[in-house]
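Exercise 7.
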Amino acid sequence: MNFANKISTFRILTVPFFIYSLIYYLPERDFLRFLALVIFILGVISDAVDGYIARKSKQQTKAGLVLDPLGDKLLLMSAFIFLSPISKLTLKFPLWVTFIVISRDVIILLGVAVIYIVKQNIELFPTRWGKLTTTFQMSAVIAVLLQLYFSFVFWWLAVIFTIISGIDYIMRGFKILYAADNSRNSH
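Solution. The predicted structure, written as tokens, is:
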């Protein structure tokens, strides 16, 4: 396992501690919110570092193509779920924000499964819209953990880019499936 993959694995292993901090948060135990913030920021930094290391040292691997997005999704999904109305924080994501973010990822995951079944292989590459979405989602989580009054600006940007990237991924998925159908029909 190369160094970039170890960083991705580290990010995955921090998720239970992040969730624990949010589940057991109470206003009188505000240090847990800061602990969750530190863990999340470490996850954000590790996401940037592992990608940079993998590209610069040309250590991009099949494991990395799975571990890196898995680490991102686990951290972000747990943040949106545990910072939703079930949270004891004063400022939290409205349920509709969490629903949109999670729905996009479920749709993408189902699409990937269908494409894999049809094509018997899959190539996963993040798009520009996907990267922007991740950036805005991470910013929204940090804003909520900081309990910023204007956090809603960040979650609105996250929602807008989540929808745009979701539509983009759906269109790309249909193009891949259409190409697979056409190549089958031409034989």
